[in-house]
Amino acid sequence: MVRFIPFVVAAAYMATEISAFAPTPTQIRTQRLITPNNDIANTNSYNNSPTSLAEMLTQTELPEKLYNPKKDKEIAKVLGGSKIGTRRLTVVTGASSGLGLNCAATLAKSGRHFVVMAVRDVEKGKRVAKEFGMPDDSYVVMKLELGSLQSVRDFVFNLKAFKSARPVNNLICNAAVYRPTDPEPAFTDDGFEQSMGINHFGHFLLANLLVDDMSKAKDARMCIVGSITGNTNTVGEYFSVERVLCCVIEELKYIDNISYTFLLSQQ
Q1: Which pLDDT band, with edges at 50, 70 and 90, does 64 fall under?
Q2: Checking DSSP bridges between strand 40-42 and strand 32-34, what pairing results, if any?
Q3: CATH 3.40.50.720 in the chain, residue ranges
Q4: CATH: 2.40.110.10, 3.40.50.720, 3.50.40.10, 3.40.50.700. Which one for 74-265?
Q5: For residues 11 and 29, what is the distance between their CA atoms, to the nearest angstrom?
Q6: Nearest one of 106, 257, 131 to 196, comparing CA atoms
Q7: CA-based nearest residue to 194, from 182, 186, 205
Q8: CB–CB of 184/235 below 8 Å?
Q9: What is the average pLDDT score of the chain?
């Protein structure tokens, strides 16, 4: 027990020294204040008000949510069974641009698929569907923000209300974000880094919520898309340590998706 006494004495001394530098409650320095016009003002003056910290906290602007259920939640579309007819029901995420849009348009024009365009911007989805010449009775556009797990659940609820007892035949998980050059990380509404939360966790929840429904369909298929970020040759295009690390992380995410798809195929 004696051998610990010097350490106890030293710790007590350090605590005393450190407390000498601790600010008193009246010495709260206000460095950044949000003004009414949302400009940031810097000040070097001391604020003696005990409520200054509380005021700063109430004035802090939090990042805007990707999905606000009160204003973004769609009213469920119903009676879609007659519209679908005998065609295969196919859900495509990220169907308002790129691979997702071209995939959705090709399937819709084939006459064998009724496509659910799962997009974050419904108005954009409707506009590009017309621009690509998709027949009016071949698709429906529904709200899906993969950066919000609540939005994923709301989408599945609306999808089931629309299709009624008809099972989903195909799920194409295409939507993704890829921001290797962003100086600061971005996060989903649930606190996940966006590329991991959207590219993997959002689709993971979506697939889990639909897998039982899809098991009722004949010859059901689930596709996890891996486009340019899944190719090894993207590492050498602009070689840097940051680029390599980013591509390695992206590869790990796609390995997660591939592993999950393989496990689903075994069920």
Answers
A1: confident
A2: antiparallel
A3: 74-265
A4: 3.40.50.720
A5: 28
A6: 257
A7: 186
A8: no
A9: 77
